[in-house]
């Protein structure tokens, strides 16, 4: 029973038409990180931040899973209990591809969170600063995503999975955001084999025993076969 941990980033959704962060013309090129992906940015201009996420939520709703998402869903279904899928992505393409378990460590575009009472509910397509929380009625609703400086979700599941991994596969991430960018090195130190599937070498390419470069929709199904 080989324990496989898979980490995905924006690159796996690129061929589904969703923008990545750090590629040419990527999401961050249009906005400063501080303005749209930090609590301070949200406090400063909640309308800008809601518009940034509303646009991405609409784009994600229009997108469809690509062969890379589908291959990972097939792998998990064919190896029940052996695959832990962790994604940095906030789109729902892994869910819609049929992955039985998806751990969204940076939250989800499809979720709303009340900053006043921590209530969570399915996000409407368009969120606005004046929206009131359905539980406490405070006008404190925000996208349920993890911004810089906030603690990622799921460590209670992620950490044991990383510690028990025989194989760690990183797909479509530039390896620049922590703690996700440290996972490969952590698993390797504990004796796991580490593999990178990406368009080009990532910032932490040295942490991998094996690498395959090319578009995810091609190299992920090939790797999974
Ligand atoms: C935390 C929100 C404390 C949702 C995101 C100094 C040093 C080290 C660390 C830090 C530091 N200063 C601050 C930190 C911590 C900070 C951090 O890492 N900063 C970086 C910038 C240095 N991290 C945090 O603040 C995190 N929280 O540390 O809390 C803590 C932690 C643990 C325990 C206790 C306390 C919170 C980080 C989360 C931030 N939120 N997003 C959203 O808007 O989506 S980050 C954002 O970047 C997204 O989540 C995204 O997923 C993530 C990573 O980006 P990638 O997915 O890698 O996307 P990118 O565009 O970069 O790369 C795409 C890749 O795909 C490229 O390599 C490209 O070649 C490839 N590609 C493109 N097309 C294809 C392809 N591959 C295959 N096929 C293709 N077709």
UniProtKB/TrEMBL annotation:
State the free-text cofactor note. Binds 1 zinc ion per subunit.
Q: Can the keyword Metal-binding be found in this entry's annotation? A: yes
Q: Give its localization.
A: Cytoplasm
Q: Which residues form the Deacetylase sirtuin-type domain?
A: 1-225
Entry GO CC: cytoplasm
| Parts forming coiled coils | none
- EC numbers listed for it are 2.3.1.286
**What does the entry's free-text domain comment contain?**
2 residues (Tyr-53 and Arg-56) present in a large hydrophobic pocket are probably involved in substrate specificity. They are important for desuccinylation activity, but dispensable for deacetylation activity.
Q: What does this protein do?
A: NAD-dependent lysine deacetylase and desuccinylase that specifically removes acetyl and succinyl groups on target proteins. Modulates the activities of several proteins which are inactive in their acylated form.
Per its record, how is this protein called by name?
Answer: NAD-dependent protein deacylase
The organism of origin for this protein: Roseovarius nubinhibens (strain ATCC BAA-591 / DSM 15170 / ISM)
């Amino acid at each position: 029973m080989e324990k496989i941990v898979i980490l995905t980033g924006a690159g796996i959704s690129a061929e589904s038409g969703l923008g990545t962060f750090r590629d040419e013309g990527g999401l961050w090129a249009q906005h400063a990180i501080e303005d749209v992906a930090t609590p301070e940015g949200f406090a400063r201009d909640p309308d800008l931040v809601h518009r940034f996420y509303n646009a991405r939520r609409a784009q994600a709703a229009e997108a469809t899973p690509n062969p890379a998402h589908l291959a990972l869903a097939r792998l998990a279904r064919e190896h029940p209990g052996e695959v832990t899928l962790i994604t940095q992505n906030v789109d729902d393409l892994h869910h819609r591809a049929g992955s039985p378990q998806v751990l969204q460590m940076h939250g989800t575009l499809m979720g709303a969170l009340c900053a006043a009472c921590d209530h969570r509910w399915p996000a409407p397509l368009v969120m606005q600063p004046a929206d009131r929380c359905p539980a406490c009625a405070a006008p404190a609703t925000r996208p349920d995503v993890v911004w810089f400086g906030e603690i990622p979700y799921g460590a209670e599941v992620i950490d044991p999975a990383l510690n028990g991994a025989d194989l760690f596969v990183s797909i479509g991430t530039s390896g620049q955001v922590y703690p996700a960018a440290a996972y490969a090195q952590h698993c390797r130190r504990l004796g796991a084999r580490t593999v990178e599937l990406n368009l080009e070498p990532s910032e932490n390419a040295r942490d991998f025993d094996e690498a395959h470069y090319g578009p995810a929709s091609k190299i992920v199904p090939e790797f999974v076969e």
